[in-house]
Amino acid sequence: MTDSTRPPVTRGSPAEGGSRGGASTRPTAESRPSDRLSREQKLELYYYMRLTRSLEERLVNLYRQTKVIGGLFRSLGQEADAVGSAYALDRGDILSPLIRNLGSMLVKGADPAEVIRQYMAKGDSPTRGRELNIHFGDLERGFVGQISHLGDMVPVMTGVALSFKMRRQDRVALVYVGDGATSTGAFHEGINFAAVQRVPMVVVVENNGYAYSTPLHKQTAVAELKDKAHAYGIPGERADGNDVLAVYDVTKRAVDRARAGGGVTLIELVTYRRKGHAEHDNQSYVPAGEIDRWAAENDPIDRYVRVLVEREGVSAEELPEIDQRVRDVIDSATDAAEASPMPEPTDALLGVYGDPPAVAPLWFREGVRSAVDTHERAAGWGTFDSRASGDGVPQDD
Ligand SMILES: Cc1ncc(C[n+]2csc(CCOP(=O)(O)OP(=O)(O)O)c2C)c(N)n1
Ligand SMILES: [Mg+2]
After folding, report:
1. Which atom of ligand 1 is nearest to the CA of 219?
2. Residue 30 in contact with residue 263, Cβ under 8 Å?
3. Distance (Å, whole) CA 341 – CA 123
4. Residue with the nearest Cα to atom 20 of ligand 1?
5. Is 329 exposed, middle or buried (0-12, 13-18, 19+ CB in 10 A)?
6. pLDDT tens-digit profile of 330-388?
7. For residue 173, what is the DSSP state?
């Protein structure tokens, strides 16, 4: 992160002896984990929700200017569920986002400039134009690159959580799935195995009412998705996904349970997808008035502003100051991304071949060789030739 994108408050890390909820304070029977968030942390939740929304709005502008390559996926109306849940993790924990979890990635340290570069498929974007939108990961910062196939991240994150358990690491994995994904075989197999192994994992089901054009009642016969937990012998909880503090509370309890050896929790967050599946979807299948009703009565940012002003004594000037900081971050991120170069054709082979195929023309192989060298020297991995001979290659621990 650059200074301009640095969040307003330093987040606690296990190494610093802190979880963000102030775990050192023993909870009372009535208290909620969010009661132990500081005022600064509560403002930081606002910052991330506003950053998510404004960054997506900027991406819409870029999309309309045809500068975005591929589709654009919005999380309008779901910012509280992404931000509040990710905020309940410690720095060493790992989450796997889906297309509506830009907010979760920002909380975990994704930089708005890299997000815009990625959407524009720039040569210096995280995947150098080989993947789109928010399909990228960084294990150091704690987010795994997503697999599009619905439900597939559940078994993947079960493996991540199992590795934490086998290594006796004090870490938790959190996996996001949509309501539609709960109808897949991968979801079932992954969560079942995770439950049997009692791995330290939280499964967050974002019930936003639709899987593409399919409404929830045509997707599943259960009334509440949290009830699917019964089939796996794990706790299932349901919370208002548009109340960022309620999301934080339910996730923090599940994360604490996982960290304490209590295994997997399934959380259903009830929210609403106010935009289409992607920008190209005109939502013609949505009943008249439904979107406007959620916008007017249940916008997560509007609701949280009321909480901050009425309960937390936040003044009228403080929130516009944060909004201005968000605008500045997004403006400089946009300038940086616009100035970035497009990828070189040979970048397409990076990470695909250890050695470019002999059938490729010489100029192409040389291009790959030089691209690998530039990329891997920057990553401290030595040159193509030293890698091929095994020198300078980082070893697994
Ligand atoms: C196995 C599989 N089937 C179909 C798709 C195409 N697809 C991508 S997203 C999506 C809808 C997802 O709905 P949901 O799980 O509710 O998540 P949401 O988009 O609402 O966040 C579909 C059908 C896919 N990616 N994988
Ligand atoms: Mg859905």
Report:
1. 16
2. no
3. 6
4. 211
5. buried
6. 999 999 999 999 998 877 777 776 666 666 667 667 777 776 676 666 555 555 554 44
7. E
User: pLDDT digits over 284-335, tens only?
Assistant: 999 999 999 999 999 999 999 999 999 999 997 899 999 999 999 999 999 9
Ligand 1 near 150 CB (within 6 A): yes
* pLDDT for residue 94: 98
Q: Which amino acid is at 200?
A: P
| CB of residue 137 inside a 6 A radius of ligand 1 | no
Instruction: Let me know the angle formed at the C-alpha of 359 by 354 and 364, rounded to the nearest 5 degrees.
Output: 70
The tens digit of pLDDT for each residue in 120-162 reads 999 999 998 988 899 999 999 999 999 999 999 999 999 999 9
Residue 145 tokens read as 């690159």
Which structure tokens are listed for 53? 């929304």
Measured CA to CA, the distance from residue 61 to residue 66 in angstroms comes to: 9
Q: Which amino acid is at 135?
A: H
Which protein residues have a CB closer than 5 Å to ligand 2 (ion)?
A: 178-179, 208, 211
CA-wise closest residue to 205 among 221, 185, 225: 225
pTM of the model as a whole: 0.86
Average pLDDT of span 163-172: 98
Domain extents in the chain:
3-339, 345-388
CA-to-CA dists, residue 35 to 26, 46, 303, angstroms: 12, 16, 17
| CB of 81 shorter than 6 A to ligand 1 | no
One-letter identity of residue 286: V
Q: Which residue has the tokens 């907010």?
A: 103
pLDDT value of position 344: 84
Domain 3-339: state its class: alpha beta
